[in-house]
Structures are given as structure tokens and as C-alpha cells.
Design a protein that fits this description.
By secondary structure, this protein is α+β, with helices and mostly antiparallel strands. The chain has one domain. About 25% of the residues lie in helices and about 20% in strands. The chain has six helices and ten strands, in the order αβββββααβββββααα. The strands form three sheets. Strands 1-4-5-6-7-8 form a six-stranded mixed sheet, sandwiched between helices. The protein is globular, with a radius of gyration of 22 Å. It starts with 17 loop residues before the first helix and ends in a 7-residue tail after the last helix. About 5% of the residues have low confidence.
Length: about 260
């Protein structure tokens, strides 16, 4: 069953769902580009790892706050107590977790040189201090080179990586295409919730033709293949919540698709 949304389905952003979407989208992009790039280029799925203390909604990791509970049975006491005496409290201490993030590299088949990096952002890249710093450090290295960068942000939560707008634009989702020979200028596809995702060019070497990456088609096809209509609980609001006008519009789409009771 296809998603009822014309572009990005905001319910796919929910923790516990997005991890699978992220992985499937990277594979779909790789599979779509490889036949169009061979024999001169190939697409590799790469990974970076780092340690970070993650919040429960950062998809993987442990609590970074202390949650206390009594070690024994709770007994009602009308007198306020500010010390536990000899009874220990149970808690969890922040412990760094290893985070693995995957991305794509387009490489020259003769020299193995990385020509283009394709990133699909994860929540940790936008909401976790360590994850954001790690991603921005990697991003800066790419931008300081001649390597092209495509940055795909399909998450409304968190602060996106920095770009400098002449006039600030509100984007629910955005795709940045940065050609190594055009920096600091970049192309930004600023997408609203109610719009289809764009087809974006994939830069290779200067003066070479740039195949189009059909993000909307790839995302909608993987939604159908993976059966996300059965995995997503459309009776609950998406994370993060939608603005009032968008929420009403989304509810109408879901009702028409039979994914949510009308009213």
C-alpha cells in the first residue's frame, strides 16, 4: 500500500521507524545510481563510528538522565523525606554508546578517489551535541576538498547543519547539493510537508552529465516494499507534532486512505 502523503511521510520520522527507513533509503539510492554510473564509478556504503551519550529518543543508546526508584517497596508516608537513609536508590548513570552512521560514497573505479558523498541525516546529527559535532567535522572536511556533497535532511526535529541564506527560508525538509568547483555556492531544495520530494542532480566531475536522483519515487517505493502502512501507528500523532493546519490536512489524507478513523 502506498503512503498517503505526496512527499515525505512525517510518521516515518518516529524513533523506532526511522532507523529502518534510513538504511533502506541508502540502499535504494545506491541501487538506483549504480547502473547509471558504471563503468566509470561505483557506489559504496561507508560508515563512521563515535561515542556519544544518547537520549532515549536518539534511537540507540541509554538514558542520559538519572531516574530514581526505591530499592524496596513503596510505603505511603505523610512526612516528606529528603534522604533515603540506609536504603539505596536505583539509578542509571550516563554511559557513552558507540554510534554507527552510514552514508554513501561515489568512487572512481580506476583510482578509487571519492568523487561525491551522499549523506542522509539521522536524528543524532541534528539533536545530539556529540553527533552534531562529529557530523559537522566530517562535513567540513568534505567541503574543504573538491569532493561533491549531497545532504538529504528528511527530519523536522533538531537544528539542520549550517548554511548561509540570503533570505531565511522555512523548510520542513531540505536537500543541499554542493559541487566542489562551485563552493561556497550551493543549491538548496527547500521542501514543505505538502510537497513531493525533488529529483536532485548527482554531481560527478566537472563538465560530466549529472544523473537525477528521484528521491520521491525511491522513498515511496521503499515504503510500499517494506509495508510501512502496517508498521506505523497512524492513530498516534507524528514525532515531532505537526502544526495545527498541517495536522488537519494530514488527518484528511489518512482518513481517505483508511489509515485513521475519520473525525
Amino acid at each position: 500500500m502506498p503512503t498517503p502523503f505526496p512527499g515525505m511521510d512525517p510518521y516515518l520520522e518516529r524513533p523506532g521507524i526511522w532507523e529502518g527507513v534510513h538504511t533502506r533509503l541508502l540502499v535504494a539510492i545506491s541501487d538506483a545510481l549504480t547502473p547509471r554510473l558504471r563503468p566509470n564509478y561505483r557506489v559504496d556504503i561507508e560508515r563512521r563510528t563515535y561515542l556519544a551519550v544518547l537520549k532515549p529518543d536518539d534511537l540507540v543508546g541509554i538514558l542520559d538522565v538519572l531516574v530514581f526508584e526505591p530499592a524496596g517497596p513503596v510505603v505511603a508516608d505523610p512526612t516528606p523525606s529528603y534522604a533515603n537513609g540506609e536504603r539505596p536508590l536505583l539509578a542509571e548513570i550516563p554511559v557513552p554508546e558507540e554510534v554507527v552512521e552510514r552514508y554513501l560514497e561515489i568512487r572512481d573505479t580506476q583510482t578509487a578517489e571519492v568523487v561525491t558523498v551522499i549523506e542522509v541525516l539521522s536524528p543524532a546529527n541534528k539533536t545530539n551535541p556529540t553527533g552534531r559535532q562529529e557530523y559537522n567535522t566530517k562535513r567540513e572536511k568534505v567541503l574543504a576538498s573538491r569532493t561533491n556533497l549531497i545532504e538529504i535532511d528528511l527530519l523536522r526535529a533538531g537544528e539542520p547543519p549550517p548554511i548561509y541564506w540570503r533570505q531565511e527560508q522555512r523548510c520542513d525538509y531540505r536537500v543541499v547539493v554542493s559541487r566542489g568547483w562551485q563552493r561556497p555556492r550551493v543549491e538548496v531544495y527547500c521542501v514543505g510537508l505538502r510537497q513531493p520530494l525533488p529529483t536532485v542532480p548527482v554531481p560527478l566531475r566537472r563538465a560530466e552529465s549529472e544523473p537525477g536522483l528521484e528521491l520521491n519515487r525511491l522513498l515511496h517505493e521503499l515504503y510500499d516494499r517494506a509495508g510501512y502502512d502496517m508498521a506505523v501507528d497512524y492513530s498516534q500523532p507524528p514525532t515531532p507534532p505537526l502544526a495545527e493546519g498541517d495536522a488537519g490536512w494530514a488527518n484528511e489524507l489518512l482518513a481517505l486512505a483508511g489509515l485513521r478513523p475519520a473525525g
